[in-house]
Design brief:
The complex is a heterodimer of chains A (93) and B (566). With 93 residues, chain A is an alpha+beta fold. Chain A is built from 3 helices and 4 strands, in the order E-H-E-E-H-E-H. Chain A is 33% helix and 24% strand. Chain A has a 4-stranded antiparallel sheet, with helices on one face. Chain A is globular, with a radius of gyration of 12 Å. With 566 residues, chain B is α/β, with parallel strands linked by helices. Chain B has an 8-stranded mixed sheet with strand order 1-8-7-3-4-5-6-2. The chains are: A alpha+beta (93), B alpha/beta (566). At the A-B interface, helix 1 and helix 2 of A face helix 2, helix 3, helix 4 and helix 5 of B. Chain B: Its EC number is 2.7.3.9. Chain B: Its cofactor is Mg(2+).
Chain lengths: 93, 566
Amino acid sequence: MVSATIEVRNKSGLHMRPASELSRIARQCRSNIIIRSGEKLVNPKSILVLMSAAIKKGTVVTVECSGETEEQDLETILHAIASGLGEGVDETA
Amino acid sequence: MNIWNDGKIASEGYASGPAFIVQRDERPACTDKIREEEIEEEILRFDQAVETGVEQLRKLLEETQSLPVGQAGNADIFAGHLEILTDCTLYEEVTGRIRRDLENVQMALQLSADHFAAAFEAMDDAYMRERADDVRDVERRLMLILQGVEETAFHTLRETSVVVAADLTPSDTVRMNMDLVAGIITEKGGVTGHVGIIARNSGIPSLVCVGPILSKIRNREQVLLDAERGSIITSPDRETQEKFCRNAAAYRDLCKKAKENADLPCITVDGRKLSVCANAGSPEEAEQAAAYSVDGIGLFRSEFLYMRQRRFPTEEEQFEAYRSAVRSMGGREVTIRTLDIGGDKGLDYFQLPKEENPFLGCRAIRICLKRPDIFKTQLRAILRASAFGRVRIMFPMIAWVEELEKALEILNVCKKELREEGKLFDEGVETGIMIETPAAVILAQELASRVDFFSIGTNDLTQYMLAADRGNPEVAPLYNPFHPAVLRSIHHVIRAGHERHIPVGMCGELAGNIEAARLLLGLGLDEFSMSAPSTPRIKQELRAANYGEAVGAAAEALKSPYTILG
């Protein structure tokens, strides 16, 4: 298993649109992926679970990937979150 | 000919045409349990329904992307629905209920959707709570597919029509050819709901929350929709039709003129300057009001914050809503009325004792003084919002000087707390009261020396002064704000206010009544506050009036023991 932490910097947190984008990307990954946000364990492949977690701007999350392509998948997820999931990031944060 | 006057105006204007009735045949979910050997077959049904749903949504998404920018926001909604539809957790939830609990697919779907919708509804964030509607929309789509019900045949909308529906979802509105929609009428829904937003964005007149009407209108029956005054007429006679056309034409002219004159201040021909404000029931309505170049929000009803949810709103939630209203008005004043529940307005989560006469019972300020915890949360939120513009605080239903003093005392405690916490607010925030009880009229002088402004609430004042329930059709003819006792009360209150050099406004229906404008001007009213769509007309009327003449005419009118108008 590989993991890394990252701050969610979307202006509106993981609302419908960015959550939709993240779950689409996560589903293209073959690894098992878990996002830890505080106490919560979130499966990013499910938009319902992802939105229910109500992850806000400024939250630091841990992304964990396990499976044959874990290195590559972790990279993909981190890159997606860092780039703001199609929404752009708030530079003033 | 049938007439309805119950709807709420979601988007103003006039529309006429044949009715296009949106029928929905969705049935309740089948409750039968299945046998174990039927499990795989039931799951296959779900798979197929999802597949059909995906096809429908992909098509919708394509159609949406070719729409004008105003409605392009829907593309995001459908992309989200597509994700929910194919969501792995939803799939596990539904198939789990089929396998484990032997639920049939319809029931499994309904229970699963309930589960996710409830999770969203429990969230703090208003945006996330509304996502429960997306889950419901997806559920409805799958349910219709599972029940073999065709989606509403919007492609049969071929001529300009007035669309009549129980409610409309985003999926519906995107499939209607908006060029052929003259007006929209819905039984349910609120002004700030989806239909209202789409209607306003597209400039389509619309009445929502009309109540049961579908069963009383035939498809293609002629409908007149007056979304300026809020009425619907079916199969009109010639006279009604002609009157409607005249009103519609006058409205069009007025809009044109009002637009040209929107930014002009409201000054009578002989130089008296008046303030014309809008009443608003939510931050969205405040934002709309700003487009009418009003002088401020004369009545910001705070009840929506309490009625929208299942618990008391937090200080933060209220603060956000007030601040948003204050910001949308720029530096113009926003008068926020503290909680006015009781009477005909209840809250599901706050059991008021059952009362014989709720309008004479525990309502508005009376509840707030009994529950200072609820009151303080609101006052703190309003005070904090005052740091972002010009806020005035207004207490409703005052009948005793003691009530006002107690309310002001609690307000001072809140100010002190905020100062200690280092939170910002406007130290000069003005406070005032609504004059709506006969007691407040008679004590107007004493009350005036304790506040910065008055606002006369004519709806309640009329019913209390005349002892005539405004909701009771039996006494409807007795409920008349032009009754000399009401007019003399208004005059008395205005004089008492002016003796103490405080401005007197009015935020009841009477303030937006074109017939009353010159009379109220003559009585000396300083501020007129009404629904935003009525402001251009009233401004026009006041600009054309002569204050000196109006004073003379009002003095004459006050002498009469008979009702002069109305």
